[in-house]
Amino acid sequence: MASIFSKIIDGEIPSYKVAEDENYYAFLDINPLAEGHTLVVPKKEVDYIFDLDDKTLSGMMVFAKKVAAKIKAMTGCKKVAVVVLGLEVAHAHIHLIPMNSEADVDFHREKLQLTPERFAEIARKLSE
Ligand code: AMP
Question: 100-115: per-residue pLDDT in tens?
């Protein structure tokens, strides 16, 4: 069965898209730690990130770099954290999180509740 992220990539499930090319897709995390919290996924459905072939894995970081530059410019954060963790979705993904202190990347913190309009506005700004 296709993962929820494959369904997002295929447009079966809606997402707030930030960027896309032939191999990767970036969209806003629906439970963000901060405005601009984005997920980068390979279109190739592989569960564990280090099971990706070398080309896809390295290309994913280059793709994420471009998205991170947009996040940094939009939020004015000091750096964009690059986080791979969690077992919830069996489709490799990188979290990109605006960061001004290490506490900003604490996944136990309460997530932001954003309106659909705000998600859409953030996605629009990041995809410009
Ligand atoms: P984890 O595997 O722990 O990294 O968790 C997967 C992440 O995907 C979580 O941060 C979820 O909020 C996020 N997520 C799950 N479903 C969706 C969705 N439909 N749209 C956007 N983000 C999602």
Answer: 999 999 999 999 999 9
* Cα angle, residue 11 at apex, residues 6 and 14 outer, rounded to 5°: 100
pTM for the complete prediction?
Answer: 0.98
Does 108 participate in catalysis according to the annotation?
no
Smallest Cα–Cα separation from 114: which of 35, 16, 14, 40? 35
Q: Given the CA of residue 93, which atom of ligand 1 is nearest to it?
A: 4
Q: For residue 24, which phi and psi values (nearest 5 degrees)?
A: -135, 160
Alpha-carbon span 81 to 78, nearest angstrom: 10
Q: Is the CB of 4 under 6 A from ligand 1?
A: yes
Ligand 1 contacts CB of residue 38 (under 6 A): no
Q: What are the phi and psi torsion angles at 51 (to 5°)?
A: -90, -5
Q: What distance in Å separates the CA atoms of residue 82 and residue 30, rounded to the nearest whole number?
A: 17
Say how many Å lie between the CA of residue 73 and the centre of ligand 1.
24
